[in-house]
Amino acid sequence: MITTVKPLGIAFIGAGGIAGVQAKALAGMPEARVVACADPNPVARARLSGTYGVERGYADWREMLADQPDIDAVSVCTPNRLHAEPTIAALRAGKHVLVEKPMAMNAEEGQAMVDAARAAGRQLVVGFQVRFSPGAELIRRQIADGVLGRIVYARCRALRRRGIPGWGVFGRKDLQGGGGLIDIGVHLLEAAHDLMGSPEPVAATAAAWTYRGDRPMQALAPWGAWDHASYSVEDLAVGQVRFAGGACLAIESSFAAHIEQDVWELDLLGERGGATLTPCRVFTDQGGYQMDLAPGWLEDGPLFPYKMRHFVAVCRDGAPNRAPGEHGVLVQRMLDGLYASAAAGREVRLDAA
What we know:
The chain is of the alpha/beta class. Helix 4 runs parallel beside helix 5, helix 5 runs antiparallel to helix 10 and helix 8 packs across helix 10. The longest helix has 20 residues.
């Protein structure tokens, strides 16, 4: 006998660019369908509905949650400051939630979201996608097989020469919480932390500078002009996180840095071997030789489909949640600590509350 499981009904809170990328990934999945979206901007709602056939649009997400019994899960794609409230409300309404990265403005908000998911008995998935990449999966399997041994150090570099977004609110600290570190550095931070086994962060030290974004554009940039008058985030941040057990992670991230070209690198150093994510390579000793190992073939393509397939599998099919809210809180604690250290000019402790 063939049993048919109905598609997961998904609604978007926030109908901007990220919602469009997610909807595109979901369009090829018969296991899911987008049934509604909510955004105060009618143009954004119309664009998402027109492109992906979203059935109903709302100006207020509260009205959508109250009016949509066919919503099984919600994806929150709003600016960071608007993550916590709709996430908690959707969980309390009995919906599973995918919240884009970073999960909140701070770890306190993130923990409230985790608590709401536990109380409601629903899944809270954080929009981390790099951990699902084929390269990260290869490295994860090498770690599981003991090839790298104990990971003692990770280095993350997410650097743009001139990659200040000319749209949205990415330059506003009050809505985003920060600049390149919280927006793009978080991708490699979450992946490295996941591959290290999600250790407990205990201390952070960092520095951050703003020198380009708060001034008028002086040279052509790939994403056009930005609003320098409202720009209140960092251009460049560098820092280090120490973990229980002695491992460390270093991170460099920028919207604007005077470098030759953009950099996207994640390196792991273990006691028996090391690895790099882009390009994916493993470095170890075999048979008396130092060996550089490369896969003969590795799938390549956009990462959002991996993330969305995982979300649907978790919510509809009961698959294990590999990006749970608890991981998001640990990442948020690291971000909070790095920004706090940069502001204070000294190392700060990250002990759990």
